[in-house]
Amino acid sequence: MRESLGPPALVVALLVYPFVDRALGLQTVHAVSDGMIYVLLALGLNIVVGYAGLLDLGYAAFFAIGAYAMGLLNSPVLGSPLYGHAWSFWLCIWLAAAVSALLGLVIGAPTLRVRGDYLAIITLGFGEIIPVAIRNLGDVTIEIGTWRPIERLNLTGGENGVNPVGRPVLPGVPFETDPVPWYFLILVVGALSLWAMSRLRDSRLGRAWMAIREDETAADCTGVNPVSTKLLAFALGASFSGFAGSIYAAKLQAITPGAFEFQVSIMLLCMVVLGGAGSLKGVILGGMLITVFDRIVLSQSTFLVRSIGRTVGVPALAAIDLTLWRWFFFGLGLVLVMLLRPQGLAGRRVQPVAADAEGDQPLAPEPSSLPRVEAIPMWLRERMTRAAAQEEAILDVRGVSKAFGGVVALNAVDLVVPRGAIIGLIGPNGAGKTTFFNVVTGLARTDGGRITFAGGSLIGLRPNAIVARGIARTFQSIRLFPYMSVLDNVLVGEHCRLAATVAGAVLRPPAVIAEERRARERARGLLAFVGLSGKDDDLARNLPYGDQRRLEIARALATEPRLLLLDEPTAGMNPRETETLTDLIGLLRRELTLSILLIEHDMEVVMGISDRITVLDYGTRIAEGTPAEIQRHPRVIEAYLGTGYEREPAVPSP
Amino acid sequence: MTGWEVLIQQSINGLTRGAVFALIALGYTMVYGIIELINFAHGDVFMLGLFISLAWFTLLGVTGTLTGWQLLTVLPLVFVLTMLTTATLNVAIDRVAYRPLRRSTRLAPLITAIGVSFMLENVALLWKGPAPIAYPDVFPSFDILREWFGVDSAIFLTSKDLLVVAATLPLMVALHYFVTRTRWGKAMRATAQDRETAQAMGINVERTILITFFVGGALAGAAGLIQGMYYNIGQWWMGYQAGLRAFTAAVLGGIGSMSGAALGGLVIGFLSAWSDQYISARWTNAIVFSILIVVLVFRPHGLLGERTADKA
Fold first, then answer.
1. CB of A604 within 8 A of CB of A570?
2. Chain B contact present for A117, CB below 8 A
3. Which of A499, A532, A578, B75 could form a disulfide with A527 if both were Cys (CB 3.0 to 4.6 A apart)?
4. pLDDT digits (tens, 9 = 90+) for B37-76
């Protein structure tokens, strides 16, 4: 009931509010409109912090850029490049958003490669530089010796800011005298932004942001380009800030650099964190709470405490000014929310972890449904057989080396995966098996050698580009996106096969709707295939261990690979689960002609399903051959298998 | 003053500034080295160190310039008291705001650190008010070149410049000894390299972190006291500014590296002094932060830090 009644009631309340306010003579419309601008800012910051997981401490800088773009272009005093000819508000608002987004890109491009906490500091530095630059660019004099090429040039209005700023002009609408048109302007912009944001969140792009937030490396290895994904979040967040800033400037009629200091960034961060990063409702709630607290609660309780102080006769209380404590309360709020409710007021309550990723807790008692030939999704089968080409070897690795400092992890290793083959990669711990996977998937750079996949070289490609070429992998220690749903995990896998852009995600033309529906059908098909039907909406972290392994395989299959790299897929599984998984791997090869490269310590599995086996020891390939050859190979027995494993007595040494 | 004299004077200036930055930067780098947290509140501990040292002077009845034997008794006493107070404060901050989040995401304690920073600044604001506070001229001030050497030059090398060096150097030497020669120092270095292995080897990791915060806080307190005696002024927001410059110094030197923090502090000290003189004080902050950004982007391991791969 509440679901159906809530939104219309809210809309009516928002539409009626300014008239009620006027009828009652409350005169709160100005304050509420200002509060809504900050909520809009917080929503923009939420894209960066909540969705993409990038802590931005200089977000107010983009607010400033939006405001100054409006101020400088639209002010009748400073005026546009065509000095003194103020441009239309309706044009400037778009220009402001574009300039902010552009600066977001310029700042983001070099900095987004650094780690999360470094990024926070860089954005902080940027947030400090912008107000300093605005102040100082109001009076620029360059003096070299006695030569003064530029003298007292005023670019930004300096400390005094820009005053006045032009108002929007709309025939018949009194923007000059009445706060109500402003209220509705901000309401419309806010509602449109919210609509766009919610659509972005539920799109291919929103899933990519969250995947980056959850595990950047895993996202990269699932086909999501971390750099462009983060840049997009940065630029979009900045553009919303530009909108908010430009309206703010025109509404306030004057802007000064002081309005965009570090504290503003922190207040916005408070709104996001308090409400619940990543939740649109939460951020709106957080924004409203903080605005109300800041503008009403603090001043009103000051009156209250003072009057109590006067009646009781305590001069200290009578003279108190709680508004001075403003920033203390914001600081306290940040600490308390992080300590007591890190997911925020509206954040999803996280259940305790069911599987502790260790693999030592009891496994799912239910025998998992056996993979069946009929269960293979039809589309996957079509993709695979269509992709079948003529070349003999799908992956051809020649002389690949990798050293970490003085430790040689890989020493001129050769390995060939023929089309449709299952190749086992075995060796003692630390032999370089996982390093080999990392080199092939682009996580580590080779020191030398060739890696050819389906006829093209992979050297120098980023992991997500390699996924797009058709190599998917799983990780030795499972790396899912823990706080995303099971279905979304698989959908992230499809990311690189989908095409929706920002405009497509927001406007949803028929092509995008069809694409999204197809993607979901495919993801459900894959989940059914690996035996995870009906768990679409569970959080990935809450799945039992064995299910997590299979979900990781489903996610890898969603990238439509031609070569699948499995890093110890049966580690931590009981014999029955191991058997199920072995069947699954066999099925993938038989039915889909999928080539598989497999790291495995369970000798029964690896000897049972591999066509050929390569053995690594101390980074060097010590043997290569069929399972039977490997079992008899003296060096393999010495280095890895041990003497107990020979089925027949080893060849007597000469 | 001739051009050379200006340069020398500004370099002396840069040296003293840099020494203070270095002391603060050491606290950043030690904490980052051990728990990978940018302790945002550290600059504010430095700021409170200045006010706390002032409170200790007042409690001990010092209002004017110290003379003779007082310099050898009262001054070291205030150093110790201030350092103990800020060290305890720093440990308390860790206990309350960071320790519960040790197993949380990386950004969670960073957010609480920002919150703590705001709280500390406002405590100072409400304690001392928004206006700059005059710090008494407790240390005798005279021009060494003129008084001791009888050199009459346009360059001033004051007794306070000497104080900064005389106070900073022993602290750094002591810290170096502590970290490289004592059991606790060894535990710190082990924990910084690999917390889990250190734990497995029987090192009490939580106690090691506590010691790190204690030492870092003590150094920040000393820096606050030195700053107060040198500049005779204190303000509630100075911790934020100095903290960012000191953090830049730590990053420039290579975060996690102690000698890097000392070197970075000096470099930032010199650069900011020269920028004030030759470009414009208005632009110095922008220049320092640009250095910070450029270093983080292009040489995140800094001048002396080791190139560390992200833990995959």
1. no
2. yes
3. A532
4. 889 999 999 999 999 999 999 999 888 888 878 888 899 9
